[in-house]
Sequence to fold (92 residues):
Amino acid sequence: MSRQPKILLIYTGGTIGMIKDFETGALKAFDFNDLLKKIPELRLLDCEIETTGFEQPIDSSNMNPKLWVALCDIIEENYERCDGFVILHGSD
Fold:
């Protein structure tokens, strides 16, 4: 039996990584390590999904070449063991 492809999902920041705080009504970041708990439909995909990201999510309008290099470093560090990479990034 062949192994499932491994995808590394890299979260940089942005609304896609937010959930509503029902006490305040404001959006707050959720822990991407809990992604499969929050979106169980991802288990239907024929792949293994791992998550990582910046220690502190950034506003996408603050993305800069230094952070691009940090993304490249994450991909390089995981290149041999992962089959694909998805970078989640805000829209600014």
Q: What stands out?
A: The chain has two helices and five strands. The chain has a mean pLDDT of 87.
